[in-house]
Structure formats: structure tokens, C-alpha cells
Amino acid sequence: MKHLPNNIRVVLACLLLCVSQLSMAASADQEVSHLISFIEQSKATFIRNGDEHTSEEAAEHLAMKYRKAKRYAKTADDFIANLASKSSWSGKPYTVILADGTTLTANKWLSDELILFRKTEKPQ
């Protein structure tokens, strides 16, 4: 690359950066989609601002938050921290009651699932 003119090197560097950013965005969308599907299929009870919600309702709510506030979720980790862990209205943390009665914060539950997904998901 040293033999290329400076302007060509700059263009190539910009192209590589763009491809990298697009890849990261696609990966984040894939991971967030997985988390939303995971929530929907969990049959857990979600507590949001003191009210109980089904897993389907929670998945629908978080999908809506992601669509409307995607700028705050550049990564799946951002999605968990900024959108899926607490109410943007009250600031109260979301909690999850699993089928076996275990109660967890949504942050812990989704973070654990994201770690598992990243370990098991095959790159495409």
C-alpha cells in the first residue's frame, strides 16, 4: 500500500472503515434480534414499572424501543444497558420472573444470554 498515492490510500482506508462499521451494525442487529426472540419465547413474566407483562408483550415493547431509539444501541450490549434493562420513563430496572420462580434483573438475564449466544453462534 506504500506505493499508492496518498489520496488512494485515504479512500481505501475510508472504504475499509465503512465496511467494518456496516459489519458491526449487521452483527448488532442480529444479536438484538436474537435477544428479542429469546425474550418472546421465554414465557417469563416481566415486571416493568410495577406491572406484570407476558414475554410476548415484553418482546414487542423492547422491539419498539429498539426501532425508535436505535441510536442509543450501537451494539447489543448498548441495547441491554440503554433500552432493555430499565424504564426510560421512570428509570426503574426491569425484572424477570422465570418459569422456575427465579427473579433476575433484565440486565443480568439478557447479558448472560448474549454471552451464551456469542459463544455458540457460528460466524456467517
Which key terms come to mind for this protein?
four-stranded antiparallel sheet, 124 residues, alpha+beta, 4 strands
Quick summary of this structure?
Helices cover 60% and strands 10% of the residues.
Task: Provide the fold topology.
Layout (H helix, E strand, L loop, with lengths): L5 H37 L2 E4 L2 E3 L1 H14 L7 H9 L10 E3 L5 E3 H15 L4
Antiparallel strand pairs: 1-2, 1-3, 3-4
What does this 3D model show about the protein?
The protein has helices at residues 6-42, 55-68, 76-84, 106-120, and strands at residues 45-48, 51-53, 95-97, 103-105. By secondary structure, it is an alpha+beta fold. The protein has one domain (26-120). It starts with 5 loop residues before the first helix and ends with a helix. The relative contact order is 0.13.
